Protein: Cytosolic Fe-S cluster assembly factor CFD1
Amino acid sequence: MSLKDINHIVLVLSGKGGVGKSSVTTQLALTLSLQGHSVGVLDIDLTGPSIPRFFGIETSKVRQAPGGWIPVPVHEANKARAEQNGNGHVNGSGDASNDIGKDRGYGALQCMSLGFLLANRGDAVVWRGPKKTAMVRQFLSDVQWGALDYLLIDTPPGTSDEHISLVETLLKETTPEQLAGAVIVTTPQAISISDVRKEINFCRKTDVSILGVVENMAGFVCPNCSECTNVFSKGGGEVMAKEFEVPFLGSVPIDPMFIRLIEEGKRPVYPEGTVIDGKAMDVDTAESSEEGLLVEKYTACSLSPIFDGMATQLVSAIVRH
Structure:
């Protein structure tokens, strides 16, 4: 089984499409890497595989190896910080909110997605349930991840064939220590929260631990001024988390600079006075640059400190689990 050398497996789930599961998965992966962990991302959204686009590796192809596939690398490990701190963790605690991007190392990051196997990016995947189920099982058995600290699995919306096959296979083929649990993604709107309630019930029925809820799209960061406006309201995800007695990891606003980073590969730059999540952003006087790795450019994003706090909570929850 290709999962035997993976320490912790985390599912990213939501009952509704369009809430930003892939965005949250991408940023959690980048943040865990920045905290010194080796990370893999498995995209099982078979009809809408977007992970290759988020990581800027759409043109990459997987390589065959004896017994399976070699996942596509996003970046190799940079040991600078691990050597500096001696243990591969920021300040020994995972708290890096004050020094994100400042001469820090990072762990290796690699991905696997059906998007790498399609002949053309726009090809439609028109499969019935049994073929989807077989593909999910093949991803879990045939991808040669090697040793990983964390494997994040980006899922399609709902509780369909892919989810059932995924959970059944993981419960059968991994240990309780390996299957850490699920991160539930919602947006503040009532319709999204209603659908996500079903996902929480799905986790409870299948004995998958819920590590926390992320409220995505809770606000909009204006690229031309210093304001963050709650376009879709805010707080619904936290209320739902309290209702179901599950951890609330935090709220994430929409940041056009993150979208620009993903779409154009440019390092985020903010106007003076920009305040995100109650914290003033450092103003970068340099022009936005396309140079550098995605993980390095992401440290300049306003969402990076937010996800750093979330990832720290997530790691602590997994350790307690």
Observations:
- DSSP finds ten helices and 13 strands in the chain.
- Residues 6-320 form a domain with the Rossmann fold fold (CATH 3.40.50.300).
- Confidence is low (pLDDT under 50) at residues 84-102.
